[in-house]
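Input structure tokens:
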């Protein structure tokens, strides 16, 4: 009886088939993992951008302030500017663009939308407008970011009076 070992070609073929099978399992699992993290990652970035815009408003000249303007809620796209839109604050104008972000796998739930900017004042406070009128600054702004598949969400809470994040990293 003769024993025969595997040739190099047979070994490489077997390894290639196993590699294809493993890739077929790993790629969908990674995509699901990335989608589930999308809302958390977007919330962390948005929270950092809100804090940065608040500081930029405090360091700006006089009444310049800063603005977070939502371009789209699904997918979430926003811009951060020095200054505020003239229609929202006749004493100011939009200045230079500081931030532009898009999160393709995330939707924003909350009162902010393309018609409702978040405005930061030089004293550190923040406010937003509903139907052209400012909402009271004695409240908490709650923004929820939801992943595309709605399997996960993350929430940001901003104290409008002080402009500070509440529980800035609860994720």
């Amino acid at each position: 009886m003769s024993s025969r070992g595997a040739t190099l070609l047979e070994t490489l073929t077997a390894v290639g088939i196993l590699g294809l099978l493993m890739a077929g399992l790993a790629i969908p699992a990674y995509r699901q993992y990335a989608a589930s993290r999308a809302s958390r990652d977007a919330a962390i970035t948005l929270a950092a951008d809100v804090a940065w815009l608040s500081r930029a408003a405090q360091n700006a000249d006089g009444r310049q302030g800063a603005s977070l303007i939502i371009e789209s809620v699904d997918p979430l796209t926003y811009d951060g500017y020095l200054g505020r839109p003239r229609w929202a604050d006749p004493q100011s104008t939009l200045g230079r663009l500081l931030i532009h972000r898009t999160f393709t796998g995330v939707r924003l739930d909350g009162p902010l939308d393309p018609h409702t900017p978040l405005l930061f004042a030089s004293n550190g406070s923040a406010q937003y407008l509903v139907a052209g009128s400012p909402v009271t600054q004695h409240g908490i702004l709650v923004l929820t970011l939801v992943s595309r598949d709605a399997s996960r969400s993350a929430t940001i809470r901003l104290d409008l009076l002080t402009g500070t994040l509440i529980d800035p990293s609860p994720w």
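The helical segments are 8-59. The longest strand covers residues 66-73.
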